[in-house]
Amino acid sequence: MNKIAILMVFIIFSCALISTILTLRPFGEPKSTEMDDYIIKNAQNETGSNNAVTSVVFDYRGFDTLGEATVLFTAVAGVLLVLRRNAHE
Amino acid sequence: MSEPSKIVKTIASIIFPFTMVFGIYVILHGHLTPGGGFQGGAIVASGIVLLLVAFGSAEIAKRVKESHLSILESIGALSFISLALLGLSTTFFYNFLAGSNFIFGRIPPFGSNPGDMNTGGVLPLMNISVGLKVIAGLSAIVLVLSLFARSRKQRKR
Hints:
The complex is a heterodimer of chains A (89) and B (157). By secondary structure, chain A is mainly alpha-helical. Chain A has one domain. Chain A is built from four helices and no strands. Chain A is flat, with a radius of gyration of 23 Å. The mean pLDDT of chain A is 87. Chain B is elongated. In chain B, helix 4 runs antiparallel to helix 5. Chain B has one domain. Chains A and B meet through helix 2, helix 3 and helix 4 of A and helix 4 and helix 5 of B.
């Protein structure tokens, strides 16, 4: 009974995945390229950075980097909180 | 655990400065070449992990305290947020230095060009602060983990 349920879930899930794959666009041809074109044309003028990836990461999508830095800060704070040497040990 | 051999120690101390230079190069040239604060910080932290593996956690912990690393990480995070806040007269994360005649203020010509360190506005400063944060954070994590494993092993004995 349990095995049949697992098999059913597996089949449904793979059907969903396969139907998604069949409707994908061909590789290298995204649907709309307005954002890409804007960044390629204006990244050097607006941010003065030759590396467009850095200008996206730190300028256009700065909030995302702030969240990433917060994740790292939280991880370090948690590790130091749990594993720090005790002074009276 | 036995001490690593002399070969491991010698090779680690030879490779370590090159790792440092490469990581700092990746951080400082984040606005010109592939890489940036996170990647360069991970490279420098991997150099510190190499020393930690070769010489043992007790030897490193004599020279570096994890509280100092924690302070460095907080300095990096605070300077990142304050650089973002300095552009607040327009928007949060506004690149206020780009196009000005101040430090890092030049605009490169459009298209491919040889590259100039003096470009990018606040991006190099943000790369440096994030790099400092990642270096200190990752080294603090690995140092504390290795010290913890060492103290557990000693307690079992």
